[in-house]
Amino acid sequence: MKRVAVILLSVAALASAAQHQHQRHHHVAKRDPTPIEVISVPGPTVIVYELNGRFISEGEVREGLANGTLVLAQNGQLSSAPSSTFVAPETQAAYVAPPPPSPTSEYVAPVTTSESTPEAAPTTTSSSSEYVAPAPTSSSSEYVAPSPSPAAPSPQANKGGHNNGPSVSSSSGSGVDQDFPDGQLDCSHFPSDYGAVDVHWTGLGGWTGVQTPETTNAGFANILTAIHGGGCTEGSYCSYACPAGYQKAQWPTTQGATGQSVGGILCQGGKLHLTNTAMSSKLCMPGTSKVDVQVQNKLSSNAAVCRTDYPGTEGETVPLDTQPGQSYPLTCPDADRYYNWKGGKTSAQYYVNPAGVSVSDACQWGSPGNPWGNYAPLNLGVGYSGGRAWLSIFQNAPTTDAKLDFSVEIVGDNVSGKCKYSNGQYCGDAGCSSSTGCTVSVASGTATFVFS
């Protein structure tokens, strides 16, 4: 389980990020002789504010920062830049991280109390969570997979949530195919003119996450994660969402020493710098061109789909707000052409929220009382490997046993197998189950997740 610390002095708060983990199995059609590869996708990040063993709410943290009773300590300070002597990590061809600890299916939900006490020291531990994708009827070779993200949305009427700030459109992020002016833009400039989608509800100036790590010989350590009200500051890696059909193309080759992931562009010398020019000179890149994966909304209201920001904070903050009667590309990462950690390859994990929930409520950390955010009932797994796209529908277990209030089915002329969720049942070639998801594969053409 990963922990990322932010420290406050006087009345201090420790913000810890704990990786939400999944472990599940799905099955492809028995008639498909091609073995599916095992896909692991980390889930979102939970932020807990702790003061010397006592938990406080994010609201109390913000109020304390505003009235001066809370002060961020040392390089945990998110509102001012650290020393300009920050040394960017070298860009070697490939960094092989040490093996992760054993996976776990547990996560820590946010808790709050009203009491506060003096400071706590930062600690960073980590584990690589795995959700194991469907095992086929034949033998399967392993392909570890987490997830980065595409997307872009527009606002919506909410179903018990609230719309915070301006709307976000799935076509947001102009200039997505333009080369990024490396080292020319100020860190205070959010690069929406180069494809990045402004995710205003995170409270980070449009960024999906901001991470400030220490660099060691083994990789990054003591990775500080900015909280609501922070921004892209000196020495930080600033992560972002991309429009529908695209995904983040920038992350440093150096990664967490114990399995944490870091993503985005680097603020150094007051300017924004690319971190992965070997991958792309742009901020965003499309998924595979071998298969076209779509999502179609046949409902009477919006349905928010949120991708895990990976590599990065691994929160479900990358938005796609599907609208009634509309179809959108759903980014399908090519395992051989995307983020690779310790030989493990990347797929995408998407959270499907109940109909009518606003994207600003859906695509961020939630709470047990509401079936959205990380408590969304249903997940989609999407990735391309071995000449086929592997598409899954499965329950967001063990996080929640809530049931989605509409049906989801994978359809397409070249889809091998069947996979549908309806009325709490996941139905594939082997029959239906209330807990076990289903998987199909497709070698070419178009496959569509239909919401109805």
From TrEMBL:
Lineage: Eukaryota, Fungi, Dikarya, Ascomycota, Pezizomycotina
Family: Belongs to the SUN family.
Subcellular location: Secreted, Cell wall
Record organism: Cryoendolithus antarcticus
Biased composition (Low complexity): 112-146, 167-176
GO biological process: fungal-type cell wall organization; polysaccharide catabolic process
Positions of the UniProt region annotated as Disordered: 94-187
Pfam families: SUN
Signal peptide: 1-17
Protein name as catalogued: Secreted beta-glucosidase sun1
Top-rank lineage group of the source organism: Eukaryota
A single GO molecular function term of this UniProt record: hydrolase activity, acting on glycosyl bonds
GO CC annotation terms, alphabetical: cell surface; fungal-type cell wall
